[in-house]
Design a protein that fits this description.
The structure holds two protein chains of two kinds.
Chain A: H1 3-15, E1 20-21, H2 24-29, E2 39-41, H3 46-58, E3 63-66, E4 83-86, E5 93-97, E6 102-106, H4 111-120, E7 125-126, H5 139-144, H6 152-155, H7 158-161, E8 162-168, E9 174-178, H8 190-194, E10 203-210, E11 212-213, E12 217-225, H9 228-239, E13 245-252, H10 253-258, E14 269-277, H11 279-295, E15 302-304, H12 306-317, H13 319-325, E16 330-336, H14 342-356, E17 359-365, E18 370-376, H15 385-401, E19 405-410, H16 413-416, H17 429-439
Parallel strand pairs in A: 2-4, 3-4
Antiparallel strand pairs in A: 1-2, 5-6, 6-10, 7-11, 8-9, 8-10, 12-14, 12-15, 13-14, 13-17, 16-18, 16-19, 17-18
Helix pairs in contact in A: 9-14, 14-15
Chain B: H1 3-14, E1 19-20, H2 23-28, E2 42-44, H3 49-62, E3 66-69, E4 86-89, E5 96-100, E6 105-109, H4 114-122, E7 126-127, H5 140-146, H6 153-156, E8 163-169, E9 175-179, H7 190-194, E10 203-210, E11 212-213, E12 217-225, H8 228-240, E13 247-252, H9 253-262, E14 273-281, H10 286-299, E15 302-307, H11 311-322, H12 324-328, E16 334-337, H13 347-361, E17 364-370, E18 378-382, H14 387-406, H15 425-428, H16 431-444
Parallel strand pairs in B: 2-4, 3-4
Antiparallel strand pairs in B: 1-2, 5-6, 6-10, 7-11, 8-9, 8-10, 12-14, 12-15, 13-14, 13-17, 16-18, 17-18
Classes of the chains: A alpha+beta, B alpha+beta.
Chain lengths: 454, 461
C-alpha cells in the first residue's frame, strides 16, 4: 500500500469523510506547474487545521495551502506537494466591529464577499485593499501573496492594514499575533512575517484588518498622452503635490485597448487618477488637476461617473483574469523599482518587447514604483523559449538597475524550470532560510516555491 | 574575559576616547525612562557601521551581551543592561544621509533625533509622519526598536508603516540590507519583524524612511468636558460616525492642572477632561467636517468646543499635550506610565475601571492618552523612596494591563515590553504564541547576544 493510503484514515477522521477529496479530476484541477496533489483536505475549523498540520508534520507530509487558487501560477515549482490544504471552509466573518473600524475574518472568505457585506453595515464600510481577482481572491491568498492594487497609493498594503493574525504553524501550534487594537507592540510583530510568505511559515486562518468608512465620493480622471515622458511627468507632478489621489496609474496602449475603455480611445499612454474623499475636495481636485493636465498636453480630460469608475478599475485589477478568459497566451511580471524611475522602466520594457517582436501591456502604479507587465508571446511559446528567457533576463536587469526586482508571476513550466521566478538573490536570504528552518524544520509547508529555494 | 582586556579591544576599534567605563558612567547608562536599573560593563560610541560590526563580532566571539542605545527615552526598560555587557551608544552616528524628494524617501543614521529630520524635511514641504512625544531627543534607532507611536498615528500609522528598509548588523557582526527604497521586495518582510523587536534581533545602523508632502490644511479643536467618560464616548462616536481625524487626544483633570501650572496651554482648570482633535488634508470641506465633529462633541455633553484660529493658538494647544508628561513629573517625584491599549469602543468603560484601580490602591493616577487609537497612558504618581507605595504601583500597573487585556486589548501600544512587562506577556499570549516568537529570536540570535532579558517571560506560565 503506498504511504499516502496509510495516512488517509487519520486525515479523514480529522476533517470528516466528505472533506477529503480524491476524485482524480478534482486533483487534476488543483495541479500546480503540472504537479498533482494526492488529496485535497478542507478543514472546517482552526482546530481541525491544527490537527491536520500537526499530523502532516509528524508524517512529513507536504502541504500546499490554497483558497480559490487564483495565484497558483505564481512562485516557484513545488518541490513536493502531497496534499492541498483548502481554506475554503474557513469562510466566516468572526468579528465585524465597524464602530471600532476593525474586522476579523477567516482566511477562506473571498474579499469580494467581505466588501459586499461591509457595504451593508451602518453607513457603509470597506476594507481598503483592491487586489486582482476581485470576486474570487480569498483573504488568505491575498495576504499570503501580499497582493495589492492601484489604491495602495492612498491606503497602503496588507502590512499597513493588518493588525492581527491567527495562523497554524508547522508543528500544529495555533499562533496568534496582534489583536484588534490599532496599536500594538506586545512581542514581535509576527503578522509581518506571515504577510507575503506564500504559506511557507504557517497556514493563515484568521486575519484582523483595519476598516475605513466609505468615502463620501469617488471619481476618476482619465488623461491620455501621446508620449510616455509626458504621462510620467504628469503623474510625478501630481504625486509631489498636496492633492490626495488614491491612485495614479499609467497604462500603455495595449492595455487600454484590451480593457475596452468606453472613453478615451486616443493617445498612446493613459494616466488614470483615482480620487476618494469629501465632495468639496473631489470637485476641486477634478477641476485643478484637469486644468494642469490641459497645460501638460493631455489630449483629453475625461471624468468617470461612479458606474464607469467602478467598471474601469475592475478591468484594471482583473486584467490578467480577462486575458485568461479570452484565451491569450501571455507571460506576466511584477517589477518594483524607485518611484522616480517609472518612465525608464516602462520605456525600456516597451523597447525590449518591440525589439523581440512581441506585444507588451503595461500597468504601472506610478506613485508606488510598481509595474505589472504582460508579454504576448502568441502561439508556439515552446519554440520561443530561448528568446523569452532572454527577454526575462533583460527585463530583470532593468528592474535591478533601478533598485528593484523582477518577479515572474506566470509563465509556462518549461520556462519556470530555467529561471528563478523571484529574480536576483539578496543578501538577506540567509536569515530568511534560518527563519524557515527554525519554524518549519521538516519543510512541510509549500516547499521549494519561495525565494532562495525556501 | 577580563574587563581590562575588553576595554582594550573596544578601544582598538573605536578609539580610547570613545569608550567609557568609570563607575559614574556605568551608573548613568544603567537606567532609562522606566523604573528599572542595571549596570553595563562599559559604553562604546561607534562612529560607523563598520565599527558597530567589529564590536559586535568581538562581543559575539566572547559571548558578551550587546545593548544598543540612543537617548534612553524608552519607557519599558528596553535599554537596561540586565546582564552587564557593552552599551552601544549611537550619538556619533547621527547624520541625515539623504533626503530623496523625488522618490519620497529619507535615509538616516540611527542616532539621529526624530525632530532633527522633520526640521530638515519642512524646508522641502515634506513630513515624516510618526511623532513620538519625545521626538525632540528620541533617536530613529529607538523609534525603530520600539515601533514608536505618537498622536498622529491614528491616521498615519505607527513607525513600522514608515520604515521601508534598514541596514542591519546581525548578532554575529554580519551586515545586511533589508528592504530598501523600492516597495515589495521579494522574500519575508524582515524589516517588518525587526521594527519593534526591541534590539533583540538586529541592530539598525541606517534606516530608509517614507516621507510625504505636508498636508495642505490642518484644523485643531478643543472640546471641554465635565466628565472623563463623556470625552471617551465622544471619541468612540467620532470614529463610529465614519470620521478618522489625524489625532484624538484626551487629558484629564489632574493633567490639565499640571499642564496649566507649567506650560499654560489655556485649558480650563475646572474641567474634568479636554479632548484635542485635529483633522488634516485638503482645505476643501474641512470646515464642514469640523462642524460635524463639534456637533458630535456637543451631543456627548461637551460644555464647550472651540477651534484654534491661528497657528499660534494651535501650537499652544499642542504645547499642552506634548508637555503633559513633563508637567506631571512636577507633581510627585516619580511616575509610572502604563501603555495599555483597547479597542476604541471600550474606552469609556476601561477609563472607569482604571479609576477604580486608583481608588483601590489609594494611588493618584493622571490620564493623558491617544484616545483615537484606544491607547491609554494612565500615569501612576508616587515617590520611589516609599517602598510600600512603590510596591502598590507595580501591582496597580499590572492590574491596569490586565483589565486592558480583558477588554480585548493589549499590554503595550507603543512603549514595548522591555523588562517591565515580561510577566504580563501571558495576559495576551499563549505559550504557543511565545514559543513561535522564540523561534524568530533563535533564527536571528541563537546565542542571545542582543539585549538579553527582554520581552520573553523567564518561566512558562
Amino acid at each position: 500500500m503506498p504511504r499516502m493510503e496509510k495516512l488517509i484514515p487519520r486525515l479523514k477522521e480529522i476533517v470528516g469523510e466528505a472533506h477529503l477529496i480524491r476524485d482524480p479530476d478534482k486533483l487534476k484541477a488543483c495541479a500546480v506547474d503540472g504537479k498533482r496533489p494526492q488529496a485535497i483536505l478542507s478543514p472546517g475549523t482552526i482546530g481541525e487545521v491544527s490537527k491536520v498540520v500537526a499530523y502532516a508534520n509528524e508524517q512529513s507530509l507536504t502541504l500546499l495551502p490554497m483558497g480559490n487558487g487564483t495565484k497558483m501560477g505564481m512562485s516557484g515549482i513545488p518541490k513536493k506537494m502531497d496534499v492541498v490544504l483548502s481554506t475554503l471552509r474557513l469562510n466566516r466573518m468572526t468579528d465585524c466591529d465597524c464602530e471600532n473600524l476593525t474586522l476579523s475574518a477567516e482566511s477562506g472568505i473571498p474579499l469580494g464577499e467581505v466588501q459586499k457585506r461591509l457595504l451593508q453595515e451602518g453607513k457603509g464600510y470597506f476594507l481598503p485593499l483592491d487586489p486582482p481577482f476581485t470576486e474570487r481572491a480569498t483573504l488568505g491568498g491575498i495576504v499570503a501573496t501580499n497582493s495589492s492594487g492601484p489604491r495602495r497609493l492612498l491606503y497602503g498594503t496588507a502590512r499597513d492594514l493588518i493588525i492581527g493574525t491567527k495562523a497554524v504553524f508547522p508543528n500544529g501550534d495555533v499562533v496568534a499575533s496582534g489583536g484588534k487594537t490599532v496599536k500594538n507592540v506586545s512581542g514581535y510583530d509576527m503578522c509581518k512575517l506571515l504577510i507575503g510568505s506564500y504559506g511557507t511559515l504557517g497556514i493563515l486562518c484568521e486575519i484582523t484588518f483595519k476598516l475605513l468608512p466609505l468615502p463620501e465620493r469617488v471619481t476618476t480622471l482619465l488623461l491620455p498622452f501621446v508620449r510616455l515622458e509626458e504621462a510620467v511627468q504628469f503623474g510625478r507632478e501630481i504625486l509631489q503635490s498636496q492633492y490626495l489621489p488614491s491612485s495614479i496609474e499609467i497604462l500603455n496602449e495595449m492595455v487600454v485597448k484590451k480593457i475596452k475603455s468606453p472613453i478615451v480611445q486616443q493617445g498612446n499612454y493613459l494616466v488614470a487618477i483615482g480620487l476618494d474623499g469629501v465632495a468639496e475636495s473631489i470637485e476641486r481636485q477634478v477641476s485643478e488637476i484637469g486644468e494642469r493636465a490641459k497645460k501638460s498636453s493631455a489630449l483629453e480630460i475625461a471624468v468617470l461617473a461612479s458606474e464607469t469608475h467602478s467598471s474601469f478599475w475592475k478591468a484594471i485589477r482583473d486584467f490578467s483574469e480577462g486575458l485568461v478568459e479570452e484565451g491569450s497566451n501571455f507571460i506576466s511580471f511584477k517589477s518594483n523599482f524607485l518611484i522616480s524611475r517609472c518612465g525608464e522602466v516602462m520605456g525600456s520594457y516597451e523597447k525590449i518587447a518591440k525589439e523581440s517582436g512581441v506585444d507588451c501591456g503595461l500597468i504601472c502604479h506610478s506613485g508606488n514604483g510598481m509595474l505589472y507587465s504582460y508579454v504576448f508571446a502568441g502561439k508556439g511559446v515552446r519554440s520561443k523559449k530561448e528568446f523569452l528567457l532572454n527577454l526575462i533576463r533583460e527585463f530583470s536587469s532593468v528592474a535591478v538597475k533601478n533598485e528593484g526586482h523582477l518577479i515572474v508571476e506566470s509563465c509556462p513550466p518549461g520556462i519556470k524550470k530555467r529561471i528563478d521566478v523571484w529574480g536576483e538573490p539578496r543578501g538577506e536570504y540567509e536569515i530568511m532560510r534560518r527563519l524557515k528552518k527554525e519554524i518549519d524544520p521538516k519543510g512541510i509547508l509549500n516547499p521549494g516555491r519561495f525565494v532562495g529555494g525556501i | 574575559m577580563q574587563r581590562e582586556q575588553m576595554l582594550e579591544e573596544l578601544s582598538k576599534i573605536v578609539g580610547k576616547e570613545n569608550v567609557l567605563s568609570s563607575e559614574t558612567d556605568l551608573l548613568l547608562y544603567g537606567y532609562d525612562a522606566s523604573l528599572f536599573k542595571g549596570k553595563p560593563d562599559c559604553i562604546a560610541f561607534p562612529g560607523s557601521t563598520q565599527e558597530v560590526s567589529e564590536i559586535v563580532r568581538f562581543c559575539h566571539r566572547e559571548k558578551i551581551p550587546v545593548i544598543a542605545r540612543g537617548s534612553g527615552t524608552n519607557l519599558s526598560g528596553g535599554t537596561i543592561p540586565t546582564r552587564g555587557g557593552v552599551i552601544l551608544h549611537f550619538s556619533r552616528m547621527n547624520k541625515i544621509l539623504e533626503i530623496d524628494i523625488e522618490n519620497q524617501r529619507a535615509v538616516v543614521e540611527t542616532g539621529l533625533f526624530t525632530l532633527a529630520l522633520k526640521n530638515q524635511l519642512a524646508r522641502h514641504g515634506y513630513v515624516y509622519q510618526p511623532d513620538p512625544a519625545s521626538e525632540k531627543v528620541s533617536t530613529f534607532g529607538g523609534n525603530f526598536a520600539e515601533n514608536s507611536g505618537g498622536p498622529h498615528c491614528l491616521k498615519y500609522g505607527v513607525t513600522t508603516n514608515h520604515i521601508l528598509g534598514a541596514e542591519i548588523v546581525l548578532p554575529d557582526g554580519e551586515v545586511i540590507q533589508v528592504g530598501g527604497k523600492a516597495l515589495d521586495n521579494p522574500g519575508y518582510d524582515l524589516t517588518g519583524i525587526l521594527v519593534g523587536s526591541e534590539g533583540t534581533l538586529g541592530i539598525a545602523t541606517q534606516l530608509t524612511l517614507r516621507i510625504m508632502p505636508k498636508s495642505e490644511a490642518v484644523k485643531t479643536m478643543l472640546a471641554i468636558y465635565n466628565s472623563l467618560e463623556d470625552a471617551g464616548r465622544t471619541v468612540s462616536a467620532i470614529i463610529a460616525d465614519g470620521i478618522v481625524p489625524a489625532t484624538l487626544e484626551i487629558l484629564d483633570k489632574l493633567t490639565i492642572k499640571a499642564v496649566e501650572e507649567s506650560v499654560h496651554a489655556g485649558f480650563p482648570l475646572d474641567a474634568e477632561a479636554v479632548l484635542l482633535i485635529e483633522i488634516d488634508g485638503l482645505k476643501d470641506g474641512m470646515e464642514r467636517l469640523a462642524e460635524r465633529i463639534m456637533e458630535i462633541c456637543r451631543k456627548n455633553h461637551a460644555r464647550d468646543v472651540k477651534s484654534a484660529k491661528t497657528e499660534a493658538e494651535r501650537t499652544q494647544l499642542w504645547a499642552g499635550r506634548k508637555g503633559a508628561f513633563g508637567a506631571i513629573s512636577r507633581l510627585r517625584p516619580n511616575y509610572l506610565v502604563c501603555d495599555g491599549t483597547v479597542p476604541r469602543t471600550k474606552l469609556p468603560e476601561v477609563l472607569v475601571r482604571v479609576m477604580e484601580v486608583s481608588k483601590k490602591y489609594n494611588l493618584t493616577i493622571a490620564n493623558v492618552f491617544h484616545a483615537g487609537d484606544g491607547n491609554l497612558h494612565p500615569l501612576i504618581l508616587f515617590d520611589e523612596r516609599d517602598e510600600e507605595e512603590l510596591r502598590k504601583v507595580h501591582l496597580a500597573g499590572s492590574e491596569i494591563m490586565k483589565l486592558c487585556a480583558d477588554a480585548g486589548g493589549t499590554i503595550s501600544g507603543e512603549h514595548g515590553i522591555g523588562t517591565e512587562k515580561m510577566k504580563e506577556m501571558f495576559f495576551v499570549f499563549s505559550p504557543q504564541d511565545i514559543a513561535a516568537m522564540r523561534k524568530v529570536k533563535k533564527a536571528f540570535d541563537p546565542e542571545d547576544i542582543y539585549n538579553p532579558g527582554k520581552i520573553f517571560p523567564e518561566v512558562q506560565a
